[in-house]
Amino acid sequence: MRITTQMLNRSAQKAGLPTNRTSLLNYINGNNSNVSLANALSKTGKEADTKKKSDYEKLEKSADQTAASAEKLLSAGSENVSSSDLQTFVDKYNDMLKNLGKSSDTLNMLYAQTAKDTVKEYKKELAELGITVEKNGTLSFDKAKFEKFKAELAANETAGNVSAGNAPEAGSAAEGTQQQPDSSQEETDAAETAQEPSDAESSKTAASAIAAKLNALFAEGGLFSKLSFLASRVSDYADANAESYSGYYNAAGSRTNAYTNGKYNFWS
Questions:
Q1: Within 10 A of 119 (CB to CB), how many other CB atoms are there?
Q2: Distance CA 109, CA 237 (A)
Q3: pLDDT for 173
Q4: How confident is the model at residue 164, as a pLDDT?
Q5: Which residues have a Cβ under 8 Å from the Cβ of 137 and sit 6 or more positions away?
Q6: What pLDDT digit, counting tens, does each position of 2-28 carry?
Q7: The pLDDT value given to residue 130
Q8: pTM of the model
Q9: Which of 79, 81, 119, 143 is closest to 222 using CA atoms?
């Protein structure tokens, strides 16, 4: 059966599709210069795919930076952590969370909620470092509060060492006072000697409590370790999605970029 251009246009009209003056031969030869409905849809699809690809690339970058900043904190440890490193981590984490929020992808929504739940679990420990967990799940950092914490921690450790170092001398002084006939003086010295181990023990207890909180953040399996792992998973998923939007389908049903790159060319 011979198909003419007029027949093609009549069929298009019946189907509710726009007609044009392009001949059937031009369709076959690929010389269609008019903007058809299929081309318009293809253009819209390409623009949407380009935006999605861009969003996933931004997410991948922010996730990589979050993982890197968390790893840096783990490497430094609680003893050498700096305010600049904490500020960087907070900024990158918030950026990753913002990019996750742009996506309606189910897995990305799960990643976002997991991140929020994780930091909320360590809310009290983060507060020690001057990091506040906001209602929307983002973080804020107070440098002044962190510096105050570091100063108090150092003073607490020094007080514990001084008290422990003075304990033997206090014992020697107590032995010397036992030769004095003044019983009231003996009682005074004994009370002072008894007070010193109490101060030392108090300092050690406080230091241990702080160490436990910091360990929950910096130890393997702690907050920063968990967030580093989570961010790496977010990055991998974002990379896979960005790659899926790198090519577009042409009229023959092939992904043009993918074919050009040879990724789906089984005959090469």
A1: 22
A2: 12
A3: 43
A4: 42
A5: 97, 112, 115, 116, 119, 120
A6: 556 666 566 666 655 555 555 555 545
A7: 95
A8: 0.64
A9: 119
Burial 135-171 (b: 16+ CB within 10 A, else e): eebbbebbeebbeebeeebeebbebbeebbeeeeebe
Q: Compute how many other C-beta atoms are within 10 angstroms of the C-beta atom of residue 248.
A: 16
Whole-number Å distance between alpha carbons of 101 and 113:
10
Dihedral, CA atoms, 221, 222, 223, 226, nearest 10 degrees? 0
- H-helix segments, the chain: 5-14, 24-29, 37-80, 83-101, 106-121, 123-128, 143-177, 183-218, 223-244, 256-260
> How far apart are the C-alpha atoms of 97 and 156, rounded to whole Å?
36
Spans of the chain below 70 pLDDT: 1-46, 157-207, 247-268
At 259 the pLDDT is 35
Two tokens at 147? Answer: 């510096």
Q: What is the DSSP string of 123-154?
A: HHHHHHTTEEE-TTS-EEE-HHHHHHHHHHHH
Predicted local distance difference test score (pLDDT) of residue 123: 96
Q: Report pLDDT for 251.
A: 44
How far, in Å, are 79, 116, 227 from residue 112 at the CA level?
30, 6, 11
- The widest CA-to-CA distance across the chain, in whole angstroms, is 132
**Angle 121-126-129 (CA atoms, 0-180°, nearest 5)?**
175
For residue 163, what pLDDT is reported?
44
Quote the CA–CA distance of 132 and 143 in Å, as a whole number: 11
Rounded to an integer, what distance in angstroms lies between the CA atom of residue 132 and that of residue 171? Answer: 46
